[in-house]
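Troubleshooting log. The previous structure file for this entry was overwritten by mistake, so regenerating from the original sequence record. Sequence copied from the archived sheet and checked twice against the printout by T.R.
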Amino acid sequence: MDIGINENVDIEDLHVEVKKDNKRNEVGTVEINSVFLNNAKNDNEKATDDKFSTQHFLPGNATIYIRSWGCSHNNSDSEYMAGLLKDRGYKIIFESAKKYDADLWLLNSCTVKNPSEQTFVNEIENAKKHNILVVLAGCVPQASQKDKRWKPYSVIGVQQIDRVVEVVEETLKGNTVRYMRERKRLRQKLGGADLELPKIRKNPLIEIIPISTGCLNECTYCKTKAARGGLGSYPIEMIVERVRSILKQGVVEIWITSEDVGAYGIDIGVTIVDLLWEVIKAIEESHPYARLRVGMTNPPYILEHVEEMAKILSHPRVYSFIHIPVQSGSDRVLDAMKRKYTVSEFKKVVDGLREGTKDIGGVTIATDIICGFPTETEEDFELTMDLMRECRFPVTHISQFYPRPGTPAAKMTRIPTGIVKNRSRKITTFFESYETYGEEIIGTEQEILVTEVNSGSGDLYVGHNRYYNQVLVPRTKNLLGKMCRVKITKKGKYFLMGEVIEVLKFEGFDNEDVTEEEVNNKKQLVPKFVRKKRNIVSIKDLEDEEDEEEEDSTEAKDKDDTHITLEESLKNFHFPKTNVGDVCCGGNGETCDCHKNNATTVLEKDTNRVLINVNDDDF
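Regenerated output below.
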C-alpha cells in the first residue's frame, strides 16, 4: 500500500487495519502497540527490489530463512512462525548453508548471554551486507525496545508471534512494522499466541509446548524477565487439547517448556502438579507409548510439590529427568542473585526427588552453575565445589558470569577474568572426573524411544531410556519413532550404546508412520504426516517444493500425504555440551566453545554429534 508520504504513519489511520485491531481491543483479548509504516529510507526498504514492491506484491512469493537462538521456548516460537508463513505459501529454509538463497531472514534471538546477543547482531549485519531483508524476533529486541540498533528493522514481540505474516509481508514491501506489547484479557496477562497455530517442527517426532511465559523471579543477573515479563500461564484445558491434537500427527515425545515450569499456574490459581497429571492422562488416552519430558524449574516453586513431583517422574509415561538450576552453593551468593531459596532448600528438593524415585532406579537431575558472580569469594566458590562433590550431578551446565546490560548485577564490581576462568576450569575438571554410569549398566536391557538420527555420518539412531540418558544404536533397521528393547554394550560420560533386541509392538496401533525410501541411491528416513483442518501444517520437502511437478489424476487423492526427510529435518537438531562457557552456535560452523577450530571430543569424532540435550530452558 503506497500511502504517498515520507513520514511515519500510524497504522490505525489505515482503514483495513483499524477494523481488525479495534475488534481485538473491543473484546479485550489482545493489547497491542500502534504499528508504524515507516516510509523513510531504512535498511529493509533499501534491500527491497521490484519483486516485492507495494504495487506488485504477491503474498507467499518469497523464501524465508529462520534462525533461532536459546531455549526450547524460543525454538517453539520459531516453529510456529515457520508454520504460519508456510501456511501462507512462503518457502521456509532452516539450513544456514542455504540462507543466502532467502529473500528475508527471520532472526529469533536470545538475551541470556552476551555471546548469543552478539551473534544475533552479527547476523543482522551479515544480512545487511548481502542486501537481504530482516525481521527481528525474540528476547533481545523485546528486552531493549529503545535500542537504536533495531530502529531500521521490523520487530515481532515474544507474545505477538501469530502476527508474523503481517510483519513479514509489510517488510517485503519495504515498510517497518513492530508488534511489541503483552497480550492481556481483563488486565490478566495471557500465555501468548494460540497453541493450535500451524507449526513446522524441526524434529517431526518432538513437540515443544510452551505452558506459560515469563516468571516470578527477579534474578539480578538475568535479562529474560525484561523480555518475557511476569508470569502468564495457558489454561490447563488449552494445553491438554494441544497434547491430544499433536499425538495424532506422528509426535511421540512431548516437551513442556517455560521460563520456569514449576511456577506454572500460580497466576491462574492452579499448580504444575495439576497440569502434569492432566497431561499424563491425555497421553495415556491418546497414544500407546508417547513420552513426556518436564522442563526447567527453579527450586522455590517445586519445593512444596516434591513428593507429588517424584510420583509424576516415576510414571512410566514420563522421563525421570528434571532440570533444576542451583547456580551457586553459597547462600550469600544466592541472596545477591535474589534466587529466593537457600542451598539447604535446594538439597531438600534433590534428596526428595531421589528418594521418591528410588523404586524405579532414581532420577536424572541436571543443574546449572555460574562461576564468577561479582560477589563470589573464594570461600563461596569452595562451597559450590562442596555441593558438586556431594550431589555429583550427571548433567551440569557450567557458565562464566556475563554482565547483561540493564541488570543489577551489571553494576556490580566484576571479578578479574583470570580468576573466573580458573574457577570455571576447576569445576569443569571435577565434573569430568567422575563417571555418569557404573560398570553394572553393561549388559542390562532397557527400553528406549528412538527420535533421531545422529548428524554427520547418519549411521546411528539416537534414543532415550527412562532416565533420559541418550542411547545410541546401529542404524540397521527402521526404528525412528518406535519403542525398542536394547542391550547396553558400551558407556561413556555422555552416552550409552546398545544393540537392538526387539522393536516393541502395540495392539491396535499402526507403528509404521516412519518409513525408509531410496533417494538418490541413499536410504533416507521419511516421516509421513497428513494435513488435518487448518491448524496442522502440511510438512513438505522444504527445499524442493517449488520444483515439484503436478500429480496426475490417479495420485490426486493422495495429495495431502506429504513428506519431509528426517535427515533434512534434523540436520540442525544440535545438542550443546554440558560444560561449555559460551552459547552454542547450533552446529552451523560459527564460533562457539563446542565448534570453534573444529575442537571436538573423542566421542564427538566417533559420532559426529554432541550427546547432551538439557538446554531446554536457560537459567
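Residues 1-41, 515-619 have pLDDT under 50 and may be disordered. Archived copy saved in two places this time.
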